[in-house]
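#struct-queue
[09:14] JT: dropping the first one here, sequence first, then the structure tokens:
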Amino acid sequence: MDNDGTNGRKFSDYCNEWLGAKKPVVKISSYCKYERIVRLHLIPFFEEWELGEISEQEINSFSMLLSYNLHLSDKSIRDILSVLSSVLRYAYKLNHSNKSLPTIHYPKLSQKETRVLSIREQNILLDYLTNDMDECKFGVFLAMITGMRIGEVCALRWADISIEEGIIYVNSSLQRVESFSPNDRGKTQLVLGKPKSVCSQRSIPLTRRGLELCRKMYPESDEYFVLTGSEHYMEPRTLQYKLKKYTDDCGLSGVHFHTLRHTFATRCVETGFEIKTLSEVLGHADVNITMRRYMHCSMEFKKKNMEKLNSLGL
């Protein structure tokens, strides 16, 4: 007899089992995200439904609810539908169902214009950071010359920097995530753990200028955090505030920490960086991610390349 995957169990049961299976194998930040999606969206909508009742049409209705009633962004809806898809795959596999999974239609993401510092803006900020440099300014400087993520910079200790080799070893990340403890609903916690993915654990060679400043800023203990020069870390939110002050002082607007990463990748592309190398420096698993998200050419670079057409009389 064909198994249609319908055995009378509620979808909410599968959600909770799926979370239990995920908890030991994903980062705590990922688990917190999954748990929140299940608790706030999947269970309230599908709680009393049986597995076989969830069809393409019902998922479309759920998606429309997220968009038109809750006014969630396309990115948030995609994340929720992705978790729904994972739970359904888990449930169908658990029941050895030979039915096809219901089709899920994901909203298309609009391409947002990414803020990238011009060379002039980049030099203004670099000059500001290196003038009367302290530990926090130094950390921001490192982000500008390595493309490190904010959580990776916050977690960076001097033990992760080999001055002898001229290499930064990215081994940790500091994140603020929502607590999943029933007693701490709505509260957040800081988690110092592994970076975003396996590929995010990487080695980044330092530039000559970066190595010189590392020698200058090296503290008395290599167990100190780079951003504070002490055994206490600085959380990402505080670093964002610091960067806002720095960029305000420089007269730069619309600059977030991820702007530094985009700017670094753009400069690398403009100077002829080999894309596979850039992908590894940024900690990407796939060069397509690098090409799709971070290959932004400045207007100066575009003009320089367009001038090459002059020789053709165009």
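[09:21] JT: and here's the second one, same format:
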Amino acid sequence: MNSNLFITFEGPEGAGKTTVIQKIAERLAEKNIDVLATREPGGIEIAEKIRTIILNPAHTAMDERTEALLYAAARSQHYFEKVRPALDAGKLVICDRFIDSSLAYQGYARGIGIDEVLSINEFAIGKKLPDMTILFDIAPEVGLARIYATGNREVNRLDVESLPFHQKVHEGYLLLVERYPERIRMVNADQDIDSVVEEVWSLLLKAIQ
């Protein structure tokens, strides 16, 4: 069994990643697997402060390149301060968003270029990609409707972007599936939460075993 893995969770807004990660982390702990659950942007003090700048709905004047660089800066600090030490200690690390978010949101949807944003992030994290990425696939309009229906989630600067922007993000993720087929696994996020958890759990067990 190999539980010393770095596994990331990706998907459009409102896909349910955070809820599933909490449930998966509980299951892993019940099986006595040493797991660290964390998130991006954030996870540690410096990155959380950068998060407040990036996602503040009032910061509409932020240039897309500034946005991409701030995400990369937060990612670098988070990775080297929290993720890398946990992996070195033999832990299983599961992370809510990582490099693929930047490739889909800033690289593709913002139009900076996937390769350009990849280059920035390779510098930031030393070209480290996850061992496996689980992509929560859901139509953008469904995910956004979930956010506004529940009302118990922070509404950030990305949530209030136009539907065409979120559709571009979705397209970007699908392009990444084609680019990294050996790493990215898709789950249907447009189903009840228990079914999503079971799909994700099955993928995790295969990776660990």
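[09:30] RK: nice, looked through the second one.
[09:31] RK: The first strand starts at residue 6 and ends at 10.
[09:31] JT: good to know. The two ends are 5 Å apart (CA to CA).
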